[in-house]
Structure formats: C-alpha cells, structure tokens
From TrEMBL:
Gene3D superfamilies: 3.30.420.40. GO terms for molecular function: kinase activity. It comes from Paenibacillus chitinolyticus. Coiled coil: none annotated. This is N-acetylglucosamine kinase. It comes from the Bacteria. Keywords: Kinase, Transferase. Pfam families: BcrAD_BadFG. Residues 11-283 form the ATPase BadF/BadG/BcrA/BcrD type domain. The keyword Hydrolase does not apply.
Length: 318
C-alpha cells in the first residue's frame, strides 16, 4: 500500500545473525526478516550493509510491502554488534543510513545502540541486572536501580573477548605450540585440533594461523574440542577453561562494582554458547559471582534481544 506508515522498525544486528522486525504501537510484530552477521569488524562494511538490507527487505515483504517501494517508519532502532567506541559509532551509523536507503525505508528518527544493551533490556525486562555474554566474543552489561548502565569487555578478538569461544580456541592453539616447545606438559589438544583443521603437524598449524584461512569463527569452534579434552582430564584444557571462567568473572565483578550492586539484589543472566553449553565454565563463574555478590539471582533468559530493541523503540514513539 503506497504511502503506508509503520510505527517501528527494530533491528538486532548481532555478530552471528541479523533480525529485523516491523511492529505496531503495542509492539506486535507484523513483519520479520533475517540475515547474517552485521558486525563490520569481522565481516567488513559492505557485507554488514548487505545483511542489514537483506533482513529489512524480507521483513518488508512479510509486511506486504514491495521491497523496492519506499516505506516510512516513525522510529527505527538498531542494536548493533561492534559498537564499542566513538569511531565505531561513526562507521555504524553510516552503514545504517546506507542500509536504510538501499532497503527503501525512510525513518523519521533513527537510534543506534550497542547490541549488548538491547540484549540486557530484553533479558531483564528493564529491571536492575547484569548480563554476561560469552559466545564467539564476550562482554558484560549492567544496569542498576537508578537506571545507570555500565559495561566491561567487548573489545573484540584482537585485544579482548576474554573467556569467549574464540579466546578459548586461541588458547588451545597456543597450548599446542607451547607443548611442542616443551614449555608445558603433554596435551591431547593437538590430537583433536589438527584433524579438525585438516592439518598434519604443528608446523602446518603455525602456517595456518598466519594464512588467509585463519578465521575468527573457525577458531571459536575449537572451544568445543577444548571442552571434550577437559572432560577426559587433559590438564592444559582444564587450565584454559578455568582461566576463561575467571576472565568472565573479572568482567562481571567490574560492572557490579561500577554500579554499586555488590550488596543489592539484582538479576544475573548468562548468555552465549560458552555459558549455555559449557557446564564447567558456567559453574565456576556462577560460584565466584555468588561469592562476590551474594544477593544476585541467576535467572534464565526471559526474552530474546530483539524484544529489548522493540521496548526501547516503543518508548521513543511520539
């Protein structure tokens, strides 16, 4: 229908997938579209825009609109992975504007936030809480009873993401080469990692690390092999998982301290593949957090991140 106006476009632009939805003023979803990773730091700017456009055009079609016809929305809110600095904001806001233009969407108001904040709002329903995410990357977000927010981590795979699947996989590569040097004891990691990467020796592993085949998502997949080795009692793998849990705890502790929540009741939510699937890391982390902040209440995720984006967008509608 030409000239139609939609109240809200909400986009969860994550590092794994992109989800775009159109809603009415009550938050009822009327059109949904999905795409791939929107994190420009790992996929590149052009690919990030392509996935945003893909998701929004699919959502327009489900809404009953032609992908090539201009659609007006009153407010468009984007929760975007990779938004960590002022420089990132400049880049991502530019990508968002380009994606909206290519998707033929005209927004009266555009808001761009980090996807971690959106995930926190969706997970806690806006109540005081701390969200600790450890998937391919890692980050901690928190909000206290006064509405003040804080974060720790999320600095990306080059200088951060401690405790994440990528970080665990990277430690496995280091352990294999340190064992080759004789700097640490035997490990079963080489026996698992080399065949997984279709490599025959540690020397080939070294060459792979510095080749064009090296990918963040592939290294993150190695975290599963570390877990397998740890279950068999491999000392090196156990040390890696212990260190991962400790690094995640340091991030959680920093946020709790910043927000003055050490002695107050708040919701603690753990999200991401590492914390949902690795019982060793999850148990060690929760034990340390409960000792540090005894009044925290561990809860399961209530809503997906997109609902946090929607809630934020609805609050901004005129």
């Amino acid at each position: 229908m030409k000239g139609r106006s939609i109240p809200l476009l909400a986009v969860d632009g994550g590092g794994t997938k992109c989800l775009a939805v159109f809603t009415d003023r009550q938050g009822k979803i009327e059109g949904t579209g999905r795409g791939g990773s929107c994190n420009y730091q790992t996929t590149g700017k052009e690919a990030a825009v392509d996935e945003l456009v893909r998701a929004m055009k699919i959502a327009k079609e489900e809404l009953g609109e032609s992908p090539d016809e201009t659609l007006r929305v009153e407010c468009a809110v984007f929760g975007m992975a990779g938004l960590d600095t002022g420089y990132d904001r400049q880049i991502i806001e530019g990508l968002v504007r380009e994606a909206l233009s290519r998707a033929e969407i005209r927004a009266d108001r555009v808001v761009v936030e980090n996807d971690g904040l959106a995930a926190l709002l969706g997970a806690t329903d806006g109540k005081p809480g701390v969200l600790l995410i450890a998937g391919t990357g890692s980050i901690v977000y928190g909000v206290n009873g006064q509405g003040r927010s804080a974060r720790a981590g999320g600095w990306g795979y080059r200088v951060g993401d401690e405790g994440s699947a990528y970080w665990i996989g990277k430690q496995a590569l280091t352990a294999i080469l340190q064992t080759l040097d004789g700097r640490q004891g035997p490990t079963s990691l080489a026996r698992r990692v080399l065949p997984y990467l279709d490599l025959r020796s540690e020397e080939e592993l070294y060459n792979w690390v510095y080749s064009a085949d090296y990918r963040v998502d592939t290294v993150a997949e190695l975290s599963l092999l570390v877990s397998d080795s740890a279950r068999e009692g491999d000392a090196s793998s156990l040390r890696i998982l212990e260190a991962a849990a400790d690094e995640l705890f340091y991030g959680g502790r920093a946020v709790i301290e910043k927000l003055g929540m050490t002695d107050t009741s708040f919701t603690l939510i753990l999200q991401g593949g590492v914390l949902q699937n690795n019982e060793f890391v999850r148990s060690r982390l929760t034990k340390k957090l409960r000792e540090f902040a005894p009044s925290c209440n561990l809860e399961e995720i209530k809503k997906e991140p997109i609902y946090g984006v929607i809630a934020q967008g609805l609050s901004l509608l005129p």
